[in-house]
Write a structure and sequence with these properties.
8 strands; 12% strand; binds magnesium ion; 328 residues; binds phosphoenolpyruvate; alpha/beta; 15 helices
């Protein structure tokens, strides 16, 4: 039963010592329940556009996409909606777009597909920008970037989409907003280019699911190695901490949208690192808020420092367990 968590659903997400934390929703799968939750979150931190593409029999047209995106943007307005461009490949396949590879997680995925098919990418970007007219709560996020060239090319295509739309637009007095553009940090190489990208993009969001998978070389969906897939591995924690430090140094807005942010222990460590925006599945929102409202940042920081000092993943889990028991 989640009654005690639900009882506080309308309260502000903040720590016991008053530090405000933005809790956002990971959306894209179940719209009816997501709609209910719209009141209780600060917006959508990850909208997985490919979920909708996966339910279709063919690529939706630009105007179908525009209609759909407008519905999503309106639903959460005035809260921000971070729409991620198509992230297919890996475990996410479209019946009507054949990708057969021996090693799909290291293959043609995310932004790589979009840049090889600019017509698909441009359609999607144009549909998003048009859907945003009069609303203004759209943000666009690029998945699986691993090289600076990908960021540059994608930004160039977004500019192109914007100018082509301005040219075509029937009513020249209707101004289209240029949305904020961000990148996902989910390939380890992106972490070490972050400060180089700070002037190019407006925000970044950590995809801890893929980042864990690629950092530890453990398939996120393979039950045989499921025990090794562990975002509390000291290396993962140290990388997440490094991202927070770097982003604060270069003044780049940062958040996290992997499953880790929806786990109480994960949220605690992330807040201690300096993350103030966490995006999670609807089922995690109330519980994470409940936990954060009962803790001081100072106590979370003490736990974090102990965890960061460990070299053993088991020891990290021991520390987390005793912290949770102590603060129950
Ligand atoms: C992630 O990789 O952490 C992420 C949020 O994206 P997805 O789970 O859709 O790959
Ligand atoms: Mg991912």
């Amino acid at each position: 039963l989640h009654d005690k968590f639900e009882a506080e659903h309308a309260l502000e997400p903040e720590t016991l010592d008053g530090e405000k934390i933005s809790l956002l929703l990971n959306a894209g799968l179940n719209l009816s329940t997501e709609q209910v939750s719209a009141n209780y979150c600060d917006g959508v931190g990850l909208y997985r556009t490919e979920s909708w593409f996966m339910q279709k029999g063919q690529f939706p047209t630009q105007s179908e996409q525009e209609k759909w995106y407008r519905e999503v943007l309106s639903r959460y307005h005035p809260g921000p909606v971070v729409m991620r461009t198509l992230d297919i490949g890996g475990d996410k396949v479209l019946d009507y777009f054949d990708i057969k590879e021996e090693n799909p997680f290291l293959g043609w995925r995310g932004i790589r597909v979009s840049l090889d098919h600019p017509e698909i990418f441009l359609d999607q970007i144009k549909a998003m920008i048009k859907a945003n007219v009069g609303l203004g709560n759209l943000r666009i996020m690029l998945p699986m970037v691993s090289r600076t060239e990908e960021v540059d090319e994608a930004l160039q295509l977004i500019e192109q989409a914007y100018f082509e739309l301005q040219d075509d637009w029937a009513d020249p007095f209707l101004l289209m907003d240029k949305p904020e553009i961000g990148v996902m940090l989910e390939v380890p190489s992106s972490v070490y280019l972050l400060s180089d990208w700070a002037d190019k993009v407006d925000f970044c969001s950590v995809g801890s699911n893929d980042l864990t998978q690629y950092l530890l070389a453990v398939d996120r969906n393979n039950s045989r190695v499921a025990e090794l897939f562990d975002p509390y591995h000291p290396s993962v924690l140290r990388v997440l901490n490094h991202i927070a430090i770097t982003c604060q140094e270069v003044e780049l807005s940062f958040s996290l949208c992997g499953e880790l942010g929806g786990e109480p222990e994960g949220a605690i460590l992330l807040v201690a690192m300096g993350y103030r925006r966490l995006s999670m599945n609807i089922s995690a929102l109330n519980k994470v808020k409940w936990v954060l409202r009962r803790l001081r940042v100072e106590d979370m920081e003490m736990l974090l420092n102990e965890c960061l000092a460990q070299s053993s993943v088991k020891q990290v889990h021991r520390l987390l367990r005793s912290f949770m028991i102590e603060h129950d």
